[in-house]
Design goal:
Elements lengths: L3 E3 L15 H13 L2 E6 L2 E2 L8 H17 L5 E4 L2 E3 L2 H9 L10 E5 L6 H13 L3 E4 L11 H10 L2 E5 H4 L5 H12 L5 E3 L12 H12 L1 H16 L13
Parallel strand pairs: 1-2, 2-4, 3-5, 5-6, 6-7, 7-8, 8-9
The structure holds fe (ii) ion.
Length: about 250
């Protein structure tokens, strides 16, 4: 397995319900590093009425994170994007051209509420595409309106990409959800596995454990595709430098 890439996590402090303080943020970063993660795209929430932290504050915290990583001598490529809840704030960001895709590519980490109807999911996929971007649907396993593999296949058919959380695969969110994850993984309806880490204790990154699990259950080629190749390609679709400091 090549080095791991995490393109969905909440390790920036003071910006959402992720890391509470700088110390927690550092802890999360070190945990990811120890697990073999060498590329991280941090994705603070943007959600109407819940997480409306302005971009300037996010950028400031991101700069500090980079400084801390450097001070600790961690050789890790850091990118800054957001996890966009599919609501009017995302529509505004698309309209105003202020949307932050994942890395240097055109993918947008797009989150839906647990019970979002399938029609809403289709509407936002289409709207994001019409704006010239590709939706990467965050933690697909949480979308309760999607119960059959055919429904997820239809989203991919429309052009969406699919992200799944490592913790859910490992059973940390219950047996029922883990078995749904297994079904989707077996059907090859997942493009990316990421941590969605929020804090070191309750929602830690579990990427190395998940990589070992995927290798054991599905083989090393599939594990590498989900945890290295596909997320790398999303961040840097044209290859080139892994580092994104200039894009922050
Ligand atoms: Fe998230």
């Amino acid at each position: 397995m090549k080095d791991l890439v995490d393109i969905h996590c909440h390790i920036l402090p003071y910006v959402d319900d992720g890391a509470l303080r700088a110390q927690e943020s550092e802890e999360l970063l070190e945990m990811q590093y120890q697990q073999g993660v060498r590329t991280i795209c941090t994705t603070p929430h943007l959600r109407r009425g819940m997480f409306e932290t302005p971009d300037e504050k996010i950028v400031l915290q991101f700069e500090r994170l980079k400084e801390r990583a450097q001070a600790k001598g961690l050789d890790v490529a850091l990118f800054l994007s957001r996890e966009y809840h599919c609501d009017s704030l995302l529509l505004e960001a698309l309209r105003s051209g202020t949307v932050r895709p994942l890395g240097n590519g055109r993918c947008i980490l797009s989150e839906f509420s647990y019970g979002a109807p399938e029609e809403d999911i289709h509407y936002f996929i289409k709207t994001i595409q019409d704006s010239g971007f590709t939706p990467l649907i965050a933690h697909i396993e949480r979308c309760s309106s999607l119960q059959e593999t055919e429904q997820v296949a239809a989203l991919i058919e429309m052009g969406a990409k699919i992200q799944m959380n490592a913790t859910a695969i490992l059973g940390g969110e219950g047996r029922k959800r883990a078995s749904w994850c297994k079904k989707l993984l077996k059907a090859q309806l997942v493009h990316v596995v990421a941590s969605d880490a929020h804090d070191p204790e309750d929602r830690p990154p579990q990427l190395s454990e998940c990589a070992a699990h995927l290798e054991r259950k599905y083989g090393s080629a599939y594990a590498e595709l989900l945890m290295h190749t596909n997320p790398s390609d999303i961040l840097n679709p044209h290859g080139g430098s892994q580092h994104a400091e200039r894009d922050a």
